[in-house]
Design a protein that fits this description.
Strand content: 5-15%
Shape: globular
Number of helices: 17
Number of strands: 13
Strand order of the largest sheet: 3-2-1-4-5-6-7
CATH topology of the largest domain: Rossmann fold
Structural class: alpha/beta
CATH architecture of the largest domain: 3-Layer(aba) Sandwich
Length: about 400
């Protein structure tokens, strides 16, 4: 441990900001801080990070870290500003901070890259499920322009994808020099190896720690209640959801739908019209702070997760399992690795199929309250099993030690 005990994490956006990847890195820092033999430093661009308050963890805040990855991926800028910090550490552990790889290797540091998306092979950082068969970086770059337009609905934003594409080509070269690359699911590792075969031997799968969800006293309502957390996102499958809800209501389905996240003013009239016709069945909850996320699961029968891209290991699915909520999800990415039992796999559906999603909504809505209670207990038991296997914190910690101290 002596030669690798000073670990520098570089995480441009740190929890409570960012997405599931930021949360995962915060939880990993917290896990590793339990080892007093490791001295951990976190370099981040987030001005108010949720700190792990232990004597062997310190935070270095510099807003430029975020700007480097977003706008100025220049190794020369990293060299001038961060050389001393890197020199004072043995291991450089990166999440979303690819521009630091060249300098870290130049200084002969051990470099670990933890991937929570597909940025090294895709400008959009995502892999649409329809692209997962014949996977090449050139194809992902080509398809990313369409994806960007559908996600942002802006020609200007689509044109900015040219810069993202050039960055992806750079990142795909830099990452090949890393000593170890961590993927968060077997499926993610498989797709990365397909798109960039040269990193296959360096890939190691370590699942993310489970989310910090407090014990929930579930209050299942008599009325079927479905929740969706993805906002008006093309990649998260919002338009698949809209079509499925419309089909469900036209077929006489009875349920309540709670939609969280951000929604464009242009889609509100459509939702309002559905409420007028079918009686206030859709509630727009807006953005919900993570600290309050448990509240939305309180009365939910099922989480709808209609993503059309290969989600590495979505925390929303873990949260649904932790709160005894049915994961009604696309069969993409690492989701089948979380929903491993036959009894829960029946709630997965083909990505992009609003027809299949509609049928599953109808099936769940006809279950009795007793059925839902029984299923909720089964989900709790399944999550307990995960917590003792692939999501076990001791196993995760052991795997991290092996990579850091090698």
């Amino acid at each position: 441990m002596k030669s690798h005990n000073r670990v520098l994490f570089i995480i441009p956006t740190y929890w409570p900001h960012g997405t599931g990847g930021s949360l995962a890195m915060h939880l990993l820092v917290k896990l590793l801080s339990k080892s007093e033999g490791l001295q951990l430093s976190v370099l981040t661009g987030t001005t108010n990070p949720e700190m792990v308050r232990r004597s062997n963890v310190k935070y270095i805040v510099d807003p430029l870290v975020r700007m480097i990855e977003r706008r100025f991926p220049l190794p020369s800028l990293v060299l001038g500003r961060y050389r001393k910090i890197l020199e004072n550490h043995d291991v450089v552990y990166l999440a979303y901070a690819y521009t630091f790889i060249p300098l870290a290797k130049r200084l002969k540091k051990r470099v670990i890259v933890h991937l929570h998306d597909y940025k090294p092979v895709s400008p959009s950082a995502a892999i649409p499920s329809i692209c997962s068969e014949n996977l090449t970086i050139s194809k992902l770059i080509s398809d990313s322009f369409k994806t960007k337009y559908l996600e942002c609905k802006s020609v200007d934003r689509m044109l900015l994808n040219i810069g993202d594409s050039l960055r992806t080509l750079l990142i795909s070269q830099w990452i090949q020099n890393a000593d170890a690359i961590i993927a968060v699911s077997k499926r993610q590792a498989e797709l990365l190896a397909k798109a960039l075969p040269k990193i296959k031997s360096k890939l190691k799968v370590i699942y993310n720690p489970p989310p910090p969800i407090p014990k929930l006293n579930k209050e299942f309502t008599n009325e079927p209640t479905f929740i969706y957390l993805g906002g008006e996102s093309y990649l998260k499958g919002f338009y698949i959801l809209l079509d499925a809800i419309t089909r469900f209501l036209k077929k006489g389905g009875k349920a309540k739908f709670i939609l969280a996240g951000s929604y464009d003013i242009n889609c509100v009239p459509y939702l309002t019209n559905l409420n007028k016709v079918y009686g206030n069945v859709i509630q727009i909850a807006g953005k919900i702070p993570y600290a309050e996320i448990v509240s939305i699961y309180q009365k939910a029968w099922a989480l709808i997760f209609p993503s059309i891209c290969e989600e590495p290991l979505p925390y929303a699915i873990m949260e649904s399992l932790a709160t005894r909520t049915i994961p009604l999800a696309s069969e993409v990415g690492g989701i089948p690795e979380l929903v491993g039992s036959t009894k829960l796999k029946r709630f997965l559906f083909k990505p992009g199929s609003s027809e299949e999603l509609c049928e599953k909504l109808l099936n769940i809505s006809t279950l009795s309250r007793a059925d839902i209670l029984e299923l909720g207990q089964y989900i709790a038991d399944s999550f307990q099993h995960l917590s003792h296997s692939i999501l076990n914190e001791n196993n995760i910690l052991k795997a991290l030690y092996e990579i850091i101290l090698r």
